[in-house]
Amino acid sequence: MKKIIITTESGSDVPQHLAEKYDIKIIPMHVVMDGKSYDDGVTDPDVVFEYFERTGKVPTTSCVNTHEYTDFFNKLQEENPDSFIYHFSYASRSSATYEACHIALEQGHFKNIYLIDTKSVSGGCTAYIIEAIKHIDNYSGSLDSDEDYIKLGHELDKITDKIECNFIPATLEYLKAGGRVSNAKALIAGILKLHPLIEIDENGVLIASKKYRGNMAKVCEKFLPDFFEKFDLNKDIIYLMYGKGLDKSVLDRMKELATEYGFKNIEYVMTGCVISCHGGKGAIGLAGVKK
User: Fold this and answer.
1) CA angle in degrees (0–180, nearest 5) for 247-224-280
2) Residue-wise pLDDT tens digits, 115-158
3) How do residues 42-77 score in pLDDT, each as one tens digit?
4) CA–CA separation, 212 vs 218, rounded Å?
5) With bands split at pLDDT 50, 70 and 90, how would you rate the model's confidence at 195?
6) Residue 208, exposed/middle/buried by CB under 10 A (0-12, 13-18, 19+)?
């Protein structure tokens, strides 16, 4: 049996303790400020916020390029010659990362690497990866040939149908500065204290839907029950996403609500620089696994 290695990009925002527990290998995406590239996942999101406050601009986000993927996978396979890699990519419809990885695998003629489009971001990717690890651990099929590992990969592809991920930015200023919403919409939302719900559809596309009114403490009281009641989720675990700068009382209340709804385990997922460029400071989100 080959050693199975799990890999992903930093935009998955896998918490460090989970990355260490499951030996998940993470390749950094990037944010660019003042012409300098910073690695996501190791750069503090405060750098993004400070840059925005100083310049009024949102840093440019950059996917992992093909050369970086090639070096990443070459090193892993050199260190683990008898292995099979499952790479869980950030949503292909939200970034060029998946396509760059696909090209790198084709150009490098890599074998024993299976690419999976999570069709999600941040905590949604984390939820997907952990669910996949559980599936691998409980897999009852044989793993005697390369075809068997590919067959397992096909099963892991199906997990995308089970993952639900929504988030709510605390402010539209970052989306406005990044050209994702108009000045007028941002102004009206600011005056009315409206916060759009960002849903990720079955294709991995981020869609703004309903709006919540009030500060994030009030939004939390409505958003979590709406999410929990809309989806028939596995109560073993829920992933609470948050942007750095969120008031601790809001995060504590999110945990309380999740516990009241019967979730046995709570996993916190702090968004890194890439997601912070969209959600800004103090965003909140949820990711869960449907039954």
Assistant:
1) 45
2) 999 999 999 999 999 999 999 999 999 999 999 999 999 999 99
3) 999 999 999 988 988 888 889 999 999 999 999 999
4) 9
5) confident
6) middle
User: Residue 129 burial (CB < 10 Å; 0-12/13-18/19+)?
Assistant: buried
C-alpha triplet 138, 7, 204: angle, nearest 5°: 90
Matching residue, tokens 């044989």: 142
Looking at the chain, the number of H-run helices and the number of E-run strands are: 11, 13
Distance, CA of 92 to CA of 52 (rounded, Å) = 26
- Write out the H or E segment, with its range, that includes residue 101: helix 97-107
Max CA-CA distance within the chain?
61
C-alpha–C-alpha distance, residues 201 and 190, integer Å: 26
Both tokens assigned to 216: 């994030």
Closest CA to 74 of 116, 118, 28, 105: 105
**Among candidate residues 154, 166, 182, 85, the one with its CA nearest the CA of residue 120:** 166
Question: Strand, helix or coil at 72?
Answer: helix
CB 32 within 8 A of CB 59: yes
